[in-house]
Each structure stands twice: as structure tokens, then as C-alpha cells.
Amino acid sequence: MWTGLLYFGDCCRLVRIPRTLLAQMLNLGCAYYLAVMLWKGFMVSTNCESPVFIVQSGGDLRLHRGDIFFLTGSDSFRAGDEVVYQVPGREISIAHRVANVHEKPDGTLALLTKGDDNGVDDRGLYLQGQLFLTRPEIVGLVVAYLPYLGILVLMLNDYLCLKCWLFLSTAFACLIGRGSWKSFVVLSLADCVGFSVT
């Protein structure tokens, strides 16, 4: 009960002094744009459009729902490399190993992928008539992964009401001066992450 009165008092103070409200709103905007700049900087440093992916469903024995992949943009691939790819027209990205690498006469690479626990290659997942993946379909090369740490981000995306409540309550707490800007930056960064299926 007392905390509600404190928040009400803080809100009244902000309304009475519009300059304070404006300053807090600018701070909130700066925190959001800090998260965007961090994400864009991460994209530039890894040369990858989506440098972080979270596994949505694990069909592989060694990868599980919530595992976080860190990707880098690469133009050279070897058999055995794990890549995340996205077939045009499909919403979800897939993380599988490169089974074969073929170099075409013009110097471009053609990749054939296969899941570790699958008996056959991924040609059934490609577009009809497509035999290999080309570089534009490869999102990135997996360079590291952290197990299970992405489960919280998946929960936020599965329960949109929880995500909205967390954003709004964190923004409100920051506006009235009782919240941490760091938590708002972390929530904003979590909203940038991509998802893949193994």
C-alpha cells in the first residue's frame, strides 16, 4: 500500500514539473537508442545481419530450446561447419551442419546442409527444385553457443502480455526515477534477437 502511494506521489511530482518529465522521457529514449546502437554495433563487428539467434525448438540431441547461437558473417565454409540459413518465403531460420561444399565455376559456393540427427540431407526443406543453398540464404556461421540462456527471451515472445507489461512497467519505473535504465536496455536488446529451429 505504501509503495503505491510513493509511486502516486512520484507521478504527481512529474506532472507538476513538466521539465522533469521531459528530462526523464529523453533519458528513456536515450536508453532505447543505446540498445539499438549496441545491436547495430554488434551487427557491424560480426559482419552478420542477425548475430544472435535463439533455438525455438530442438530436434537435435545436443541442442535444446533456449540455446543461444552467436553468428558471424563468413564467405568461406567447410563441411562440418554449423550454419543458420533461411529459405526465401519461409519465416523461420534453420540451424544445421554443412554436409557438402561445392564451388561453382564462377567461384560462388553451393552448400548442402543436414541435421546431425537426420538420416537425409535438407533438400526437402529447400524450395522445390533447389538442390543447394547459396550465400544469400546463409544467415551466418555459428561460432559459439550458450545453453538454455535464451529461454527467458522465448518466454517473453510466447507471452506477449508479459512482454508488454515488462516493457511498460520498466519504462514507467524509469520515468518516475525508481527504475534502472540498464534493465530497459536489456529488455530492448532482447527484442532484437532472431529465432531458429534445429
Note down, in words, how this protein is organized.
Keywords: Membrane, Transmembrane, Transmembrane helix. By secondary structure, this protein is an alpha+beta fold. The protein has a single domain (19-198), classed as Umud Fragment, subunit A, CATH 2.10.109.10. The protein has helices at 2-16, 18-46, 151-158, 160-175, 181-190, and strands at residues 52-57, 68-72, 82-85, 93-103, 109-114, 138-146, 194-197. Strands 1-2-6-3-4-7 form a 6-stranded mixed β-barrel. A hairpin with a 5-residue loop joins strand 4 and strand 5 (109-114). Helix 3 crosses helix 4 and helix 4 (160-175) packs antiparallel against helix 5. The longest helix is centred in the N-terminal third of the chain and has 29 residues, at 18-46.
Task: For the structure shown, list the relevant keywords.
198 residues; elongated; six-stranded mixed barrel; 7 strands; Umud Fragment, subunit A
Record the SSE blueprint.
Layout: H1 2-16, H2 18-46, E1 52-57, E2 68-72, E3 82-85, E4 93-103, E5 109-114, E6 138-146, H3 151-158, H4 160-175, H5 181-190, E7 194-197
Parallel strand pairs: 1-7, 4-7
Antiparallel strand pairs: 1-2, 2-6, 3-4, 3-6, 4-5
Keywords: Membrane, Transmembrane, Transmembrane helix
Subcellular location: Endoplasmic reticulum membrane
Transmembrane segments: 21-39, 138-157, 164-181
